[in-house]
Amino acid sequence: MGFFFGMIIGIAIGIGLIVAFARAERIRSKCRSDLAKTVAAFARMTVQDSRKLLPSQYYPSWVVFTQRQKLNWLNHHLQKIWPYVNEAASELIKSNVEPILEQYRPVILSSLKFSTLTLGTVAPQFTGVTMVESESVAGGVTLELELQWDGNPNIVLDIKTRVGLALPVQVKNIGFTGVFRLIFKPLVDEFPCFGAVSYSLREKKKLDFVFKISGGDISSIPGVSDAIEETIRDAIEDCITWPVRNVIPIIPGDYSDLELKPIGTLEVKLVEAKELTNKDLVGKSDPFAVIFIRPLPDRTKTSKVIDNDLNPIWNEHFEFVVEDSTTQHLTIRIFDHEGLQAAELIGCAQMKLSQLEPGKVKDVWLKLVKDLEVQRDTKYRGQVHLELLYCPFGIDGNIVNPFDHDFALTSLEKALKHESNETDSSELRKTAAQKKKEVFVRGVLSITVISAEDLPVVDFMGKADPFVVIIMKKSEAKAKTRVVTNNLNPVWNQTFDFMVEDALHEMLMVEVWDHDTFGKDRIGRVIMTLTRVLMEGEYQDCYALDIAKSGRIYLSLKWVAQHKVRDT
């Protein structure tokens, strides 16, 4: 009897302890949440709010009422502590940046190190302070500080060239304007109320500097000045520019979740360009493209050169790592290849990754401009055609990526791969990148040419006699519709089937022609890859005709995969 009574008492006490522990955790969680809300509310307080809480006679001397006065207070105190900041920051920069300079050291140099590094006597000036409310969630607070620095640092680089020439190079006339982002996260119930602070250069508005050597001009040594400047800019991009986040622990703990991590991949199909500006005096430009998300040498992709063509067709695929889809963007620059001379920029364009819907192919034409920062030049430089597919990590079951090796596997092969994943996953990860390059997708593409609208008048006597030519660019397979006489809004409703051996690298060209008794004239064309039909299986859409004053064509595409046995 005593045993059962003791057991009941023990169970009751255990349940009571569990309930008490759960209640304590709820209370603690609520306190943390309330603290985060309070900190965020104080950060959003305006001058009027503060006046309601405290009369002006109770304000400390550092409390001010305008943004300008706040900045003056910050700059005044920064100037006071600058000698100590200079000493600490100089040593920190030297120890952290030297390894990165060595990593990006150009091949013409055998050594690149700091011999002297001090930041001088002129402190930076804060020119703006903003709280980023969209980033300041319950677990943290995000501030952005705009900073301007026209300093007098003493920075000397010791460089040695491959031919044994040693040069002390001074970095002078530094002018910098940028926005730094500070993330205070996570919020905790211990002083100073946050566990760590992360910092990053959110936006680099201006960075100017010049190189000097004792008794001469470094520009007299071919290639050295440009190589050092490129190395410095690459180092800044790699070590501090957003989305890179440098985490400083304030309270001991694990803050690995705050560090930079890849969140997905961006598949880019460089399709074509049209109406490019001609940079050559004799003949036409020889365009090629440079594409990147982060402008680092190992993350920048370069297309092949198309000789003597202002309407080049590339049909090239590139893959990029995405680290922050909300703020990063894809940049493309089109150059004219000049042989041994430096390539000449034709134009550039950008696409925000936030405009992409995960798992959906976006077909875009981007207008080229001279400068992405200062768009004063309104001259037309042409357009570039891209197909973009953003695939976030962690939702593989919901998003189909046709460039993934698994896409081309049969059901049996996928089952066998699943078994091998459990026994040899490390080996598969090592060869994943190579396998992506070897993906071949085979199947039948059915194309229905439905109709066209608003075609331009091309005949002297009458309207037009249009017909459509379908071309598979890689395999060179062709098909042609019937001719519809004297009609600017023809209807065909004809279907053609093509056996496609390599759908990922194939390109579909749909050309509308005018039939004449003694010849034919091309009215316009549409060029597309097969990425979308591979993902969706079947779709119908309307396409504007390129190289035409007007006109649209309606097409229906259907894909049926034809798996074949491959050697293992």
UniProtKB/TrEMBL annotation:
Q: Which Pfam families match?
A: C2, SMP_LBD
- Outline the extent of the SMP-LTD domain: 67-251
Classification via PANTHER family: EXTENDED SYNAPTOTAGMIN-RELATED, SYNAPTOTAGMIN-4
Name where it's found. Membrane
Q: Which family does it belong to?
A: Belongs to the synaptotagmin family.
Q: Does the keyword Disulfide bond apply?
A: no
Name this polypeptide is given: Synaptotagmin-4
The principal localisation class reads membrane
Q: Which UniProt keywords apply?
A: Calcium, Lipid transport, Lipid-binding, Membrane, Metal-binding, Repeat, Transmembrane, Transmembrane helix, Transport
Name the species this protein comes from: Prunus mume
Q: Which residues form the C2 domain?
A: 245-366, 424-543
Query: According to its record, how does it sit in the membrane?
Result: Single-pass membrane protein
Q: Which domain of life is it from?
A: Eukaryota
Supply the SUPFAM superfamilies for this chain: C2 domain (Calcium/lipid-binding domain, CaLB)
